[in-house]
Amino acid sequence: MKKISNALWSLASLVSIGSAALAASSEADFKSAYARADAAEQEAGHLRNQWLAAEAALADARKAAAKQDFETAIAAAKEAEALAKASIFQTTSEKEAWKNLEIH
Questions:
Q1: CA 78, CA 37: separation in Å to the nearest integer?
Q2: pLDDT tens, 26-66?
């Protein structure tokens, strides 16, 4: 009986350690996703083309992370990164596109 009790205790310990590692992983994943989004948004700022939607998504990511809702925070950070990269693409493509226009 004592062996079964020890085995159950060991199993319970492993499950709780695994849960803690998963939560830490989620926070680390958020920090990584947020850093990428923030870097892209800063680059967009250097190009003077920051989108309000990207700023809002970054704010949503921060709020969700503060509530320990890392799944939502990661999704918002990824959205912010995509929006920031789209604004960068817009700026760089339009910087050259005007040269191809036909002047009448």
A1: 7
A2: 899 999 999 999 999 999 999 999 999 999 999 999 999 99
Rounded Cα–Cα distance for residues 71 and 65 (Å): 9
- CA 34 to mean position of chain CA atoms: 4
Prediction pTM value? 0.73
Helix/strand/coil percent split, the chain, to 5: 90, 0, 10
Q: Which residue has the tokens 């990428």?
A: 36
- For tokens 């939560």, the residue is 23
Task: Specify whether the CB–CB gap between 90 and 83 falls below 8 A.
Answer: no
The two structure tokens encoding residue 22: 């998963």
What ranges do the domains of the chain cover? 26-98
Q: Which residue from 100, 101, 102, 36 is spatially nearest to 74, judged by alpha carbons?
A: 36
Distance CA 50, CA 13 (A): 47
